[in-house]
């Protein structure tokens, strides 16, 4: 780079600072900038083809606009873009039938780096406002895209003819920046960009490679794109466009069928499974973006949970897996978002700090909440069928964002042990004994739940026998979810079935039946001389004893285990803080009382066996505990 200095000869000597100042303009030498363009213009070289095809699309868009304004006449020929691969000539050509260029335009827009003809066109025909730029449908705004051709080319040619009828021109430029313009011949208006591919980039002379790049970046561009090769020149009339000019997200949701949504999902994400459901977004001013989001269907819990949001700009692919347009807690979403107000060459740092992107993210969250609420209210059967697939994600979002929780709280389902579903509000209404809305709102409700239906089956059967509905909350996120739910819902608490037996008791604790000798037997059996023992008459007389671990203590234990603050061995010791509930209505309790006065050894054996049964109903036995239980069982069998 060199700096052109100019001194103001009219300066007076009264101000030495002004007298010594210099003004100038920075000039760039082509032999310095072209090596930078070739190596650093884009980190992904494939983008060069997107840029050249996008320029061709812009040329057609301009032509259509001029025709609509009466400043040009259409010739009746369909608009199209042809990408031609000629391996023998080592050229890759992109041809359009758009506006073409005059010599003045060729000099202004091609021979001056970063002078954007698109911006000039927008200012003249669409207005200078941001709305005019976004609504123009024009893709390139920066003027650098054309030069990406030199990333893969040793020489680039342009053959162009303007719609004005000006003579056709031939522009040729080598990779050192020197160019030549001469008269040429072209029958119809439009532009052909002919790229002479270097030996190092010969992959771009392979039809399969070119098709791969076009499929990635240009699958939904607004004009038909045809891929031609030297071998199939005689079959041009049979060729079909390789792109879809009217992607599904441009349609109104009322015009789309469920099958169309599924087919679009299969095509874009190469997933043969149907998604759980889709969300069609058509945001108007001031956001001005469109898109379709999907909740994917997972085959197993080991499937990849990472979603993928594809970002488009006026139907041109910009970036894959753009996480910035959705909150982190919706990481599993897949979809496409077309944001014409974002620049084509958007960066991660721009997305992370852009106010518009934050508003887009907020709008997406609202649309997802609206969809969940709509499904729950209007299509409850289908909603219940997919709840098992989306529950963890919805709960995670609810824990992460209080606003999300507030929006969907009426649509949060509880899966019950009897395979039915209830919303939290429905559970509350069913649990409240009393008439009238005021009574239900004032009553305190306990949601009884299980984290392991098989392991806690003893407790579950006792609660269901008393008419209680038991919810299944068996994921790691559930501990955080129920804690968050208790903050959102007033007078609501969640209690695991093995945490409290007050609902199963026929009355208050039977203080008069407390027996120090029996307490001693159970403490000896547990190997814990501080074991809490309560004597309670339960409505179900089958279980002689149950272990209860307080809900708060158990949640803390779960938290510690989840974040690896304790080892598995230490986690198993939490039972030391549990309370043994001795069921005084059980016949076995009476049998234990009788043995105290007749056979202390048998009483000790029976107390140990009862404790192991209660422990087994509470959690899985470790190796030593299981061996001891089996040994006692064998002795018991032999004694019959």
Question: Would you summarize the structure shown here?
Answer:
The chain is α+β, with helices and mostly antiparallel strands and 640 residues long.
Q: Can you offer a commentary on this structure?
A:
The protein has 640 residues and is of the alpha+beta class. It folds into 4 domains: 41-197, Histidine kinase-like ATPase, C-terminal domain (Heat Shock Protein 90); 248-382, Ribosomal Protein S5, domain 2 (2-Layer Sandwich), CATH 3.30.230.80; 412-497, 3-Layer(aba) Sandwich (Rossmann fold); 512-547 and 574-638, Four Helix Bundle (Hemerythrin (Met), subunit A) (Up-down Bundle). α11 (380-400) crosses α16 (477-488).
Which residue ranges are poorly predicted, with pLDDT under 50 across at least 5 consecutive positions?
Answer: 1-14, 128-134, 568-573
Query: Total domains, how many?
Result: 4
Number of strands: 22
Based on Cα principal axes, name the global outline. elongated
Helix percent band: 25-40%
Tell me the CATH superfamily of the largest domain.
Answer: Histidine kinase-like ATPase, C-terminal domain
The name CATH uses for the topology of the largest domain is: Heat Shock Protein 90
Strand order of the largest sheet: 7-6-5-8-4-3-9
Number of helices: 22
Amino- and carboxy-terminal Cα gap: 102 Å
Query: Helix/strand-derived class?
Result: alpha+beta
The CATH architecture of the largest domain would be: 2-Layer Sandwich
Radius of gyration in whole Å, from Cα? 37 Å
Strand fraction: 15-25%
Major sheet size, sense and barrel closure = 7 strands, mixed
CATH class of the largest domain: Alpha Beta
Q: What's the multimeric state?
A: single chain
Mean pLDDT: 83
